[in-house]
Write a structure and sequence with these properties.
- It is a single chain.
- The chain is an alpha+beta fold.
- Strands 1-9-8-6-5-4 form a six-stranded mixed β-sheet. The chain has a three-stranded antiparallel β-sheet with strand order 7-11-10.
- A hairpin with a 2-residue loop joins strand 5 and strand 6.
- Helix 1 packs across helix 2.
- The longest helix has 21 residues.
- It is elongated and about 75 Å long.
Length: about 325
């Protein structure tokens, strides 16, 4: 580990802001130059990220050597730890991983904790398993045996899957929906309209109300007949028809059905990245209980619209879910 420590220190020194970051192409070039100078051009860059988590563990436990997991545990199998494994897990439970792009000094205790470091230790230091800390972003919390894993603590009912601003297709559909809603609302001065509702910030009632407006507008044949004469009206109807086509909705759709379908599309895209299909959300407690929910595309596609709207929240561009209510 001394070699890796030296590499990290030198890399940090050469970065203009002192922050190492494997997702920054310019900083990766700096790292590659350092590795070439040391004759280590074949080093696995992922090992550097893993070393950060291991150093956090050593610091938290105040040890030179990380204790190995005593028993055998399989990813995806619900368990409750006991013995020495449970003791180590509990000590690491409230330790947070390093902040993204920062070293171990940014790690610490959250008070409640989220169990991420504990779950990392459980598989990274158990024979026949591998684990990597991804430091979040658009990635799962952990990569275990090549499978994405999102960690959730029992003391929190919700988890944040991250932002979805890069989901251009669904953002475009939401822009059409809320753009029409804002236009009609400004003309008719709809009572109770939330002025803050937008494609990146809306409630269940906001998106349902917007689909009510869209349905009324879409079914207005007299107004639709003016499309050839007024290009603006024609453009609006073209966008409405495109939205309904992509959501595979008939004219008889309900607002709740349409809202659930669109939010479900957003979830499908996000879950495909975090934790990835076939991956897990694992609910962990301080006493070493792990309960898994596997994420598959079929499971998400078959979700009931009511369940989707009840357990999914969009706030400032971030997707927040209640996993137990949504997926069980």
């Amino acid at each position: 580990m001394i070699v890796i420590d030296n590499i990290l220190n030198e890399w940090s020194f050469r970065c203009h802001d002192g922050i190492v970051d494997l997702s920054d192409p310019k900083k990766v070039i700096i790292l590659e130059k350092i590795l070439n100078e040391l004759g280590l051009d074949k080093i696995n860059l992922d090992e550097i990220g893993d070393d950060l988590y291991d150093r956090v563990i050593k610091k938290a436990l105040n040890v030179e050597e990380i204790p190995q997991v005593q028993n055998s545990y399989e990813l995806g199998t619900n368990i409750t730890l006991n013995g020495e494994d449970a003791k180590v897990f509990k000590k690491l439970y409230s330790v947070s991983p390093p902040k993204k792009d920062k070293d171990i000094e940014s790690a610490g205790s959250k008070g409640t904790g989220n169990g991420e470091i504990s779950v990392y230790w459980l598989f990274a230091h158990q024979p026949n398993h591998t684990a990597k800390g991804t430091q979040g972003g658009g990635k799962p919390d952990l990569d275990i045996d090549g499978v994405g894993v999102e960690v959730k603590a029992y003391d929190s009912s919700r988890i944040t899957l991250g932002r979805f601003a890069s989901d251009k297709d669904n953002i475009d559909l939401l822009n059409t929906l809320f753009g029409l809603n804002a236009l009609v609302s400004s003309i008719e001065k709809i009572e109770g309209k939330d002025k803050k509702a937008s494609s990146l910030n809306f409630s269940r009632s906001d998106i349902s109300r917007a689909f009510d407006v869209l349905q009324d507008f879409s079914g207005n044949d007299s107004l639709r007949e003016l499309s050839p004469k007024y290009p603006l009206i024609g453009s609006i109807y073209a966008k409405i028809d495109d939205l309904l086509s992509k959501l595979e909705l008939e004219q008889s759709f309900t607002a709740a059905e349409a809202a659930g379908t669109l939010v479900k599309r957003i979830l499908v895209r996000k879950f495909s990245e975090k934790p990835r299909f076939g991956g897990y959300i694992v609910n962990v407690s301080e006493n070493g209980t792990l309960k898994y929910i596997q994420i598959t595309e079929e499971k998400i596609m078959n979700l009931d619209s009511e369940k989707v709207l009840e357990n999914t929240f969009i706030n400032q561009g971030s997707i927040i879910i209640n996993p137990e209510g949504l997926l069980q």
